[in-house]
């Protein structure tokens, strides 16, 4: 009761009803804190402490708000209410109705052990049974905990621990002992993770598995402290926009063109820039970046022509980092104005098995060139050798770069058919133009996430595929350990997923805005 105020008749008759809310839910400002401390200072001890009834009122406030949070119960002894079991059952029901609320019980000035051995405790109150009942209650949900502060000086430390944000965890699923594990406070971003398979969880909440291939930025929400939910990528809005541009995939996914613009180039031509991303069938589907992906992007007016009659253009690819879904920026040079684009895509969630006979040392490719046998339509000709391509590598380094550093070094690989005949079988250009040169280390590990460009000159008898890789400045360049691996299209397309039909953009114009699907 408040000091200097008479007892109400109802409270004098039943002190277990002496409950008053000193402060409602609101931000803890300095003025609010000062008033709360004054209200507490005005209280005088009397009769019993109706802890469970007060706890039920506090839980009810969270139910009204439909939110999670923390309830801290501070007590200096054992609960002696004779109606203990019924009220405890009511508390358990209220806690089950608010699974996101964490109960922190703090016993100060005492310990459980002292209470168990205190001869002055009423023998009709079975302390051991009530301790077990409290343990059962705290074990019934997520994040509940019991604290002891036998000394007054310990109370502040225990209260700080009670209200501290609970950490979420990220677990490396690739290790046999399920470790190491990194902990972060809710609201904090985790450190950049190495590529691999992980799980994210929070206390006893069911964990969600996900994969990191490099560059992704996944986001998760903790709902009422009881459920983790993946935050769908904002790009999904294009699936419902009247002006959205997307195409469905054989496995139920969608490829979205979130942006398509035309920008001026240095030589008075224009380049088309496309931002493309993959999203899952459902909002909660976490999409991992494919191991291999190929975009065919051509002006719609040329999309029905055979490759030999399409204009040769340079296409540059780069991964867009910090997106919550796999996203690429693809730039196609020498693009005509006021022309739609037709986009086809092929990708694989697993890497194509490679043939060690199609691997060459980079220094060999650079200095002497190399030859690799690959399957191409029309070969082998009668009594002729199998198809093969010739590789030649070159390397450029900015004038300001240090020897041995990455410094945006460019590695250029040029592929030409060994056979120079102008007569090509059906499908030859498709297979040759989709050869995939990869840069890998000596142990077979691919050099990940290199920005690259490709240009395919499709003149029968003089075909040329040029692929330029840009080496990042932060990555050490080790030419003697570097390899070039060639993967044929015949192997890649066997299990590739593709769009059910090509994606068509709107007209691209040089004003720099036409073609953005989110324009209305």
The helix/strand class is: alpha+beta
Fraction of residues in helix:
10-25%
Rounded mean pLDDT is 83
Specify the number of helices.
10
Instruction: Briefly note the CATH topology name of the largest domain.
Output: Immunoglobulin-like
**How many domains comprise the coordinates?**
4
The CATH architecture designation of the largest domain is: Sandwich
Order of adjacent strands in the largest pleated sheet: 10-11-12-15-14-22-23-20-19-18
End-to-end separation in angstroms reads 63 Å
- Gyration radius (Cα, Å) is 34 Å
Q: Tell me the name of the CATH class of the largest domain.
A: Mainly Beta
Major sheet size, sense and barrel closure:
10 strands, antiparallel
Provide the low-confidence segments as ranges.
512-520
Total strands: 26
- The geometry reads as elongated
**Portion in strands:** 25-35%
Structure characterization notes:
With 520 residues, the chain is an alpha+beta fold. The chain folds into 4 domains: 49-163; 167-231; 236-350 and 499-504, Immunoglobulin-like, CATH 2.60.40; 356-493, Immunoglobulin-like. Helices cover 17% and strands 31% of the residues. It has 10 helices and 26 strands. The strands form 6 sheets. The protein has a 10-stranded antiparallel beta sheet with strand order 10-11-12-15-14-22-23-20-19-18. A 4-stranded antiparallel beta sheet has the order 5-4-6-7, with no helix packed on it. Strands 13, 16, 25 and 26 form a 4-stranded antiparallel beta sheet that branches. The longest helix has 15 residues, at 51-65. Residues 512-520 have low confidence and may be disordered.
């Amino acid at each position: 009761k408040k000091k200097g105020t008479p007892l109400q008749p109802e409270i004098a008759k039943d002190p277990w009803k002496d409950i008053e809310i000193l402060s409602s839910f609101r931000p803890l400002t300095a003025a609010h804190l000062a008033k709360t401390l004054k209200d507490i200072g005005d209280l005088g001890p009397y009769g019993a402490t109706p802890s469970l009834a007060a706890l039920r009122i506090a839980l009810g406030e969270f139910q009204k708000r439909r939110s999670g949070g923390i309830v801290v119960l501070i007590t200096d002894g054992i609960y002696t209410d004779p109606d203990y079991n019924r009220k405890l059952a009511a508390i358990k029901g209220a806690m089950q109705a608010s699974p996101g609320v964490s109960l922190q019980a703090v016993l100060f000035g005492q310990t459980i052990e002292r209470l168990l051995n205190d001869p002055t405790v009423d023998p009709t109150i079975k302390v051991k049974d009530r301790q077990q009942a409290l343990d059962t209650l705290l074990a019934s949900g997520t994040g509940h905990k019991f604290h002891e502060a036998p000394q007054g000086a310990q109370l502040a430390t225990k209260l700080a621990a009670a209200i501290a944000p609970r950490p979420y965890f990220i677990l490396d699923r690739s290790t046999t002992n399920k470790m190491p594990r990194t902990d972060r406070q809710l609201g904090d971003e985790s450190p950049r993770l190495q590529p691999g398979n992980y799980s994210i969880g929070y206390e006893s909440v069911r964990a969600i598995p996900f994969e990191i291939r490099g560059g992704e930025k996944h986001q998760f929400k903790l709902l009422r402290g009881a459920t983790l939910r993946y935050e769908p990528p904002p790009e999904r809005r294009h699936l419902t926009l009247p002006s959205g541009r997307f195409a469905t995939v054989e496995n139920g996914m969608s490829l979205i063109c979130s942006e398509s613009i035309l920008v001026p180039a240095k030589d008075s031509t224009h380049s088309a820039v496309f931002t493309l991303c993959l999203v899952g069938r459902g909002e909660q589907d976490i999409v991992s970046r494919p191991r291999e992906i190929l975009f065919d992007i051509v002006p719609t007016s040329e999309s029905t022509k055979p490759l030999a009659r399409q204009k040769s253009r340079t296409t540059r690819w780069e991964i867009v980092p910090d997106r919550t879904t796999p996203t690429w920026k693809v730039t196609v040079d020498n693009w005509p104005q006021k022309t739609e684009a037709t986009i086809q895509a092929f990708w694989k969630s697993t890497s194509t098995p490679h043939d060690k006979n199609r691997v060459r040392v980079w220094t060999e490719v650079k200095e002497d060139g190399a030859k690799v046998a690959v399957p191409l339509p029309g070969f082998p000709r009668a009594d002729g050798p199998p198809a093969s391509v010739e590789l030649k590598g070159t390397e450029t380094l900015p004038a300001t770069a240090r020897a041995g550093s990455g410094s945006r070094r460019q590695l250029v690989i040029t592929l030409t058919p060994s056979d120079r005949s102008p007569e090509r079988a059906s499908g030859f250009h498709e297979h040759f133009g989709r050869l995939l040169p990869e840069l890998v280390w000596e142990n077979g590990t691919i050099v990940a996430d290199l920005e690259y460009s490709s240009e395919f000159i499709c003149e029968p008898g003089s075909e040329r595929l040029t692929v330029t890789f840009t080496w990042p400045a932060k990555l050490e360049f080790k030419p003697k350990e570097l390899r070039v691996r060639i993967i044929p299209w015949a192997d890649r397309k066997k299990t590739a997923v593709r769009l059910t039909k090509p994606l068509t953009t709107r007209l691209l114009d040089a004003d720099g805005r036409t073609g953005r699907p989110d324009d209305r």
